[in-house]
Amino acid sequence: SSAASDVYKRQFRDQVGDFGTLLYAGHDWLDPDLAKRSMTLMAEKVMPAVNAAIGSTSKIAA
Predict the structure, then answer these.
(1) Which of 10, 20, 21, 28 gets the highest tally of CB atoms within 10 A of its CB?
(2) How far are the Cα atoms of 13, 23, 47 from residue 40, in angstroms, in the given order?
(3) 29: left (phi over 0), alpha (psi -120 to 50) or beta
(4) 20, 33 in Cβ contact below 8 A?
């Protein structure tokens, strides 16, 4: 991602705060291959990026 994009993302997160929960759901997907691809992308691309973004600032609830 570009430096400008990174700055924008950081500013957005500073305004809205960290995620409390990220919910991913699929319902009645007619194309099983599309559903599998979507879940694979979530696991391999989205979640690693989210974890990297919050890794240094997230706090584990006691």
Answers:
(1) 10
(2) 25, 15, 10
(3) beta
(4) no
Neighbours of 4 (CB within 10 A): 8
Q: Tens digits of per-residue pLDDT, 3-53?
A: 888 888 788 888 888 777 778 887 777 899 999 999 999 999 988 988 887
pLDDT exceeds 70 at position 61: no
Q: Return the domain boundaries, the chain.
A: 20-62
Rounded (5°) CA angle 20-25-26 = 165
DSSP H helices, 1-62, are 3-16, 32-41, 47-54
- pLDDT greater at residue 2 or residue 57: 2
